[in-house]
Design a protein that fits this description.
311 residues; mainly alpha; two-stranded antiparallel sheet; 13 helices; 2 strands
Length: 311
């Protein structure tokens, strides 16, 4: 009987195997080493800058090195006229450059978005300056502005201006000359981003607008611009940060001159650290610049309502 009962007893249900957590953790394990390296390369310099901003650190004068507290920051805001001059010029540089680059980039994007013969070649020519490095761009424009072999020489041959004129050495023309040089490099950035967003605008919207009798200007104002809102906000923010931190082009073209007319805050920081070897004060300047950029970026994103619905 016991054997019969044992035979009649239904088999126990198979135990569920506990799902292994390894497959779910595998992506994190794979990207872990790269993430740690990136964190180290980013976090260490940032922490070092904050640390040295509270120090008097000059390798050429080690007997003066030591903890300074907030003395460097007090000096920046109370006893450094150069800081305020460079900050004002940086704001002017960013406003002019980003505004003009956006305007010309939008115009170019609208042009190359049309259908015409040779559009591929036209797009390649428009985008090609963006592929050139900043140092090479500076070298090209240094040659173009050379007083002996550059643009001014050919203008003088045509009776416009005089020989030996250097736009980069004249305080009345250096800003405009530097702006034109950076426009050549920066306009393609806006053209690329805006053109990419233009590709996603439905043609049905324009066809419906034409049926309703809307002009090209009204179509641009009520269809194109609202669709490009987020792309314009993001591109202007990114470009503003890059232009604020612009060092290579201005350093190569003018070195911050003449008479400090083109010295931006990052260029002033570079001169303070590299030339004067005052790394403590330069770190304090960098910290102030970081806070200014962070504050302006947050305010800009809040006021522009980035990512919000278009009404």
């Amino acid at each position: 009987m016991a054997q019969a009962a044992a035979v009649a007893k239904p088999p126990a249900p198979p135990r569920r195997r506990r799902a292994s957590a390894t497959p779910r953790r595998l992506p994190y394990l794979l990207i872990g080493p790269a993430a740690l390296l990136m964190l180290g390369f980013i976090a260490y310099p940032v922490i070092s800058v904050f640390y040295y901003s509270l120090q008097d650190y000059n390798p050429t004068k080690p007997w003066r090195n030591g903890f300074a507290g907030f003395d460097n920051f007090v000096k920046i805001f109370t006893d450094d006229a150069v800081f305020w001059d460079t900050l004002v010029f940086s704001a002017k540089w960013v406003f002019v450059e980003v505004g003009l680059q956006l305007l010309f980039g939008l115009a170019l994007a609208l042009i190359v978005n049309q259908t015409f013969v040779g559009r591929g070649i036209g797009r390649a020519l428009v985008f090609s300056p963006w592929a050139v490095s900043g140092v090479l761009t500076s070298a090209i424009w240094v040659l173009l502005y050379n007083s002996q072999t550059g643009i001014t020489r050919y203008l003088a041959d045509m009776g416009i201006g005089s020989y030996g004129t250097s736009w980069l050495s004249d305080t009345s023309t250096v800003f405009s000359a530097a702006v034109v040089a950076d426009l050549w490099r920066g306009v393609p950035f806006f053209a690329i981003l805006i053109l990419a967003d233009l590709q996603s605008v439905s043609k049905d919207l324009y066809e419906a607008a034409e049926v309703d009798g809307a002009s090209r200007l009204k179509q641009f104002w009520h269809i194109t611009l609202p669709h490009l809102k987020d792309a314009i906000i993001l591109s202007t923010l990114l470009r503003a940060v890059w232009e604020f931190n612009n060092v290579d082009l201005l350093y190569t073209l003018t070195g911050g001159g003449p008479a400090g007319e083109t010295t931006t805050l990052p260029l002033y920081i570079a001169n303070t650290s590299v030339d004067a070897h005052d790394f403590g004060y330069a770190s304090a300047l960098t910290t102030v610049a970081f806070v200014i950029l962070l504050f302006c970026s947050i305010v800009y994103l809040r006021l522009s309502k980035f990512g919000g619905e278009n009404k």
